[in-house]
Write a structure and sequence with these properties.
Alpha-Beta Plaits; 11-stranded mixed beta sheet; Nucleotidyltransferase, domain 5; 24 helices; globular; 33% helix; alpha/beta; DHBP synthase
Length: 771
Amino acid sequence: MKIGAAVRLKGIVQGVGFRPFIHNLASEHGVHGYVRNLGDARLELYVEGVRSAVDQFISDLRTEAPPICKVADIEVEYRPFSGRFDEFTIYPSNDHRAASGSVIPPDIAICDECGGEVVSGASRWHLYPFTCCASCGPRFTAVLKLPYDRERTNMSRFPMCESCQTEYCSPKDRRFHAQGICCSRCGPRVTLYDNRGSLVETSNPLKEAARLLAAGAVVGIKGIGGVHVSASASHDDALQRIRTRKGRPFQPFAVMSRDLDEVTKFADFSRLEGELLKHWRRPIVTLRRSADYALSELVAPHLDTIGVMLPYTGIHLLLCSFSVDPAIVMTSGNTSGLPMAITNADAIRQLSDTVDYFLLHDRDIVARCDDSVIRVLGDVPTIIRRSRGYVPTPIELPIAAEQDVIGVGAELRSVGTLLHRSQAYLTQHIGDVDCLETATFLEDALEHLRSLLGVQDHPRVIAHDTHPRYLSTRLAKGLAERWGGTTTSVQHHHAHAVSLMAENSVPEDESIVAIAVDGVGFGADGDVWGGEVLVSSYKGFERAGHLARQPMPGGDACARFPLRMCAAMLHEHLEDNKVRSKILSQRGRGGMTEHDLERLIRQVTADVTLNWTSSAGRVLDAMAAVTGLCLERTYEGEPAMTLEAAAQKGEATDVVPTSDLVISRGGVRSVDTTKLLVASVLALENKSVRDVCASFQYTLSRAMAVIANETARRTGIARVGVTGGVAVNGRILGTFQREIENDGFEFLQHRLLPPGDGGLSLGQAVVASQV
């Protein structure tokens, strides 16, 4: 018996080579009909044929789909056989929008087949940097609007030549309906300029750029999501010039290498880390430096790790192929505090004082998108920054929102979220929302996401952090006023806990005990929180424990100069000459003189208004300062990262028995971090800095785990998890996991979202949806 079937597919089904796959699958099963893109990012198809063939065809749509494709839902309506079709055809796209929730795929790294043609092939794509096929190339950064067709992408102004058109229309060709198809005859071109914007005459701009890098030049390189500032990772002088020009003396730089063999020259990696490096998402993966590290110490000063990625475009692949160095530094091309440059004019305007040359091209970047960063903690790939390769893939939630909600995040390393039904769509990495330009970028990114999703109306609920002075809070209020909506404030660490719950599919009616450890979060009592044990549900939280409340004289000055934090924590113990002399022994940037110390003590002991904090980040900073590892923070997280690097090589034991550290007042448990710090300072008399740093982290983690586990037993909660920026410290996270699992609780950690503020907006949106 012959039948017909009308089928609609939802998910990531446009821009992944799905229509060509369906065309060939139909031929394989002997069914006829058509397939086409819809304006709401779904696919519509109709097939006719023998019933068994139609059924098998529909089954194979899900099971045999291209690996990058994600079929979230298939709607099938069987119909009588009409006999209208004598072949299977890819129809022109239809702008019709009947649903929302489907979305285009993330940017996809150049595939091995295209990469082989670019580097060593004999075809017309040899040495052409914009080569792609139906299964690779930019997507999110290239699409203006849906449906996904060439005329609605950044390729619209590059008409196909006759050869490309022929392959685009050939069903057996892997470039069949590849919207980004182009070659040197018809596609974008790369051009080399000096830092004044004057053309550099050369027959091969990429090869010349590689030569300049090897000679010590700093080059601005335009990719698919923005501009990188690049230099040879082996050239001290070039790296120092980048640091001086950008005002980043110690911030670690990521590097790009041609292949895994090159990476072995400076980093060690596991099988899993190697797979992540080669994955089509092509994130930066944080690896351990190898014993025979072959790069400049200026790539990642004072750290034992290095961020590494492999080429993800033909531009990068050719540049690395021409390079004589094992790695090239690739750091974001932006003026400090501003979003990354994406136009040629902005790159030259913003970076002419930073770089010596520009390697640019004439294809527009529709949406700027920074590189994603991954770190394997234990055996779990943990996202540090979720951006290129991941956005706009949704996070599936265990609860459904009755109306659309936006979460605007906090202030640092921000990301926005659009919550639509039971899916959360996060924007690309935005950065620190502390100036008008980044606030505008956040708003534009949310609006672009809404447009791509086909969400017709602006969301009426806008969630934001409780901190009243954050620019993101003001942005939320402005959006609500313009859109006729309301705002909901969500406590910072509750948002962290709910993000952890949501990505781990904790049921709607259950709670967890969450250890939230980070640097800054506005607390419910007006203090700066950051070392919290919370009993959290989707609707609310109870503060069950925390790190001891400590003074922060000068507020943010304690974050910039962590020895101030150390002295404030120890002010009652400075009569001990060993403690006092250890603080005063630190000299150089951020070090303290006797006069500085006395003035700080007067600040703390006088009857004046002080900032108070329970922040884990500030406690780790204090330890990094008293050991001399970091006396001035020059980038976010620097003191804690240098502490972690030292602790990685040390032996961990209890500095103080946890029973002596955990105290109780008014039913709320806390950790006496002053006692821990004093003991650690005294331990430096007869133990190595590495061992004391390792023991400090270990003891702090164990003490917080004691409070969390006691809380779980008291409340009958089965799950205990860890969230917040400190949760990217592998040894701290590992201690938490052992202590929690040894007590019989299920351990939760982040796998789909960054533990830090880059995952915060999802929690905000979920909480607001429950109000």
